[in-house]
Specification:
36% of the residues lie in helices and 13% in strands. By secondary structure, the chain is of the alpha+beta class. Helix 7 runs antiparallel to helix 8 and helix 8 packs antiparallel against helix 9. It starts with 19 loop residues before the first helix and ends with a helix.
Length: 310
């Protein structure tokens, strides 16, 4: 049973300096941070409809995660510069937790480190990762990580997948932060039951065994939405939505694509497009070239709206 009681803000778990897994873990973090510089994909998307854009993560999310694992193994020089872990490789186990593990060739080899890896299509309608992280703190070790990799298409509506700066955090700490957030979400409802039931589990639980924490009350199904937890993931989500895509921040692209998916009348669509353009211009550009590109993009978006409303 987890020792954290959820009453006081949690702290990161200290990693023993002399434990060989500590250096390995630090190297893996560096490799994950380097993903945007090295990620390539053979996939090329063309001809996708705007209304289908929000569902693209369903089609490609698993593939992006699998390619990320392959890339992580190719970056062995970062996380294993001395060849200490020769014979070990990261493998993806979609039905297990954590779903990426550094294991040896033997079937029963215990994982050295685990990563709960999730992709996030940056232009999803919710403007935040939809992942539910419900794992108990006892289901991971201090060296295990949770990683969320944001991605998009190179030409926004088409092209090859590209990834951006990932979110990387100590998985055990993330479980505790989620518990703390949930235990203190009573708000204006003094009768809300914010308790959580923690299962008896161990790191790298076997498939089919109980390893997730269960809230006493969760009518909205929001338990585990760590993207909304301040001090954990919320700031990174906001920063990620500022990522430029073809010269315009991701958050404005999401607002633009929503115009087509919500079935609004022409007047509302035109008014919202003007509002989006105003916000983009107010954000300011660093140089005249970027500003000119931005104006051309806004003009093209306006033309798309006009054509769609005819």
């Amino acid at each position: 049973m987890t020792e954290y009681d959820g009453k006081e803000p949690p702290r990161h778990y200290a990693l023993p300096v002399r434990d060989e897994r500590t250096g390995l873990r630090n190297g893996v973090v560096q490799a994950l941070r380097a993903l945007p510089m090295h990620f390539t994909s053979p996939i090329n998307i063309e001809g996708i409809e705007v209304n289908d854009l929000f569902s693209i993560n369903t089609l490609l999310g698993g593939t992006i995660e699998a390619q990320t694992v392959m890339l992580l193994n190719s970056l062995r020089g970062i996380w294993d510069p001395e060849g200490r872990w020769e014979g070990r490789e990261f493998r993806r186990y979609p039905e297990s937790f954590p779903d990426v593990r550094l294991v040896g060739p033997g079937r029963d080899d215990a994982p050295l480190i685990g990563i709960e890896l999730k992709g996030w299509y940056l232009l999803s309608k919710e403007s935040e990762p939809s992942l539910r992280y419900k794992a108990s703190a006892d289901a991971v070790t201090e060296w295990d990580l949770i990683c969320c990799v944001p991605w998009g298409l190179s030409n926004v509506l088409s092209g090859k997948p590209v990834v951006y700066d990932p979110y990387v955090e100590q998985a055990k700490f993330a479980s505790d932060m989620r518990t703390y957030y949930w235990n203190h979400r009573r708000g204006d409802n003094p009768n809300r039951d914010c308790g959580i039931r923690h299962p008896e589990t161990t790191p790298y639980p076997r498939p089919g065994t109980q390893y997730v924490d269960v809230p006493n009350q969760d009518g909205g199904g929001n338990f585990g939405r760590i993207a909304r937890v301040n001090g954990l993931m919320a700031d990174w989500v906001n920063e990620s939505m500022d990522t430029p895509m073809a010269g315009i921040e991701a958050k404005y692209w999401v607002s633009f694509f929503r115009l087509f998916s919500e079935g609004k009348p022409r007047e509302e669509i035109e008014a919202e497009l003007d509002n989006i353009a105003r916000k983009v211009r107010q954000a300011g550009r660093r140089n005249p070239r970027e500003a000119a590109l931005e104006e051309r993009l806004l003009a093209h978006l306006g033309a798309i709206v006009e054509l769609s409303l005819e």
